[in-house]
């Protein structure tokens, strides 16, 4: 069976067009793979939970009898030590959790205005 003459150029054009569409789509149009989308949504959900729990952390800091000393320690600490101070104070440990939440500790120390 003999194919028409236009078949080869049409197939080459279709393959080149599909390749160009994929390159443009993933580079500039914002397309992403399922794994990338899942990773991005996971990060956003952790951030959203931390932001939702920040008022709890602020309330815990106000109810803590040692809050004045902890806040003074936060002010004096360098930026990379502040999260650990909030975690150690117990303010970033949600009810029912065994250990502090890192994202909540970061959001809490920012909301407390440490270092500003």
Describe this structure in words.
The longest helix is centred in the middle third of the chain and has 30 residues. The chain has 116 residues and is an all-alpha fold. It starts with 6 loop residues before the first helix and ends in a 5-residue tail after the last helix. It has one domain. The chain has 5 helices and no strands.
List the SSEs and their pairings.
Elements: H1 7-27, H2 34-63, H3 67-76, H4 82-89, H5 102-111
Helix pairs in contact: 2-5, 3-4, 4-5
Strand portion, in percent? Answer: under 5%
- Count of structural domains: 1
End-to-end Cα distance: 79 Å
Give the overall average pLDDT. 91
Q: What is the global morphology?
A: rod-shaped
Poorly predicted segments: none
Structural class: mainly alpha
Give the SSE order as H and E letters.
Answer: HHHHH
Total E-strand runs: 0
Number of helices: 5
How much helicity do the residues have?
55-70%
Radius of gyration, taken over Cα atoms and rounded to an integer in Å: 26 Å
- Largest sheet, strands/sense/barrel: none
Considering the chains and any ligands shown, give keywords for the structure:
mainly alpha, 116 residues
Write a compact overview of the structure shown.
This protein is 68% helix and 0% strand. The protein is mainly α and 116 residues long.
């Amino acid at each position: 069976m003999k194919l028409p003459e236009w078949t080869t150029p049409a197939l080459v054009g279709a393959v080149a067009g599909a390749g160009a569409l994929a390159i443009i789509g993933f580079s500039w149009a914002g397309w992403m793979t399922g794994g990338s989308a899942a990773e991005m949504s996971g990060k956003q959900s952790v951030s959203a939970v931390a932001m939702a729990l920040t008022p709890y952390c602020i309330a815990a800091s106000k109810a803590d009898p040692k809050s004045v000393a902890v806040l003074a320690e936060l002010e004096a600490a360098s930026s990379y030590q502040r999260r650990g101070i909030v975690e150690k104070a117990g303010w970033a440990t949600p009810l029912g959790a065994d250990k502090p939440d890192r994202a909540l500790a970061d959001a809490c120390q920012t909301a407390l205005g440490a270092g500003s």
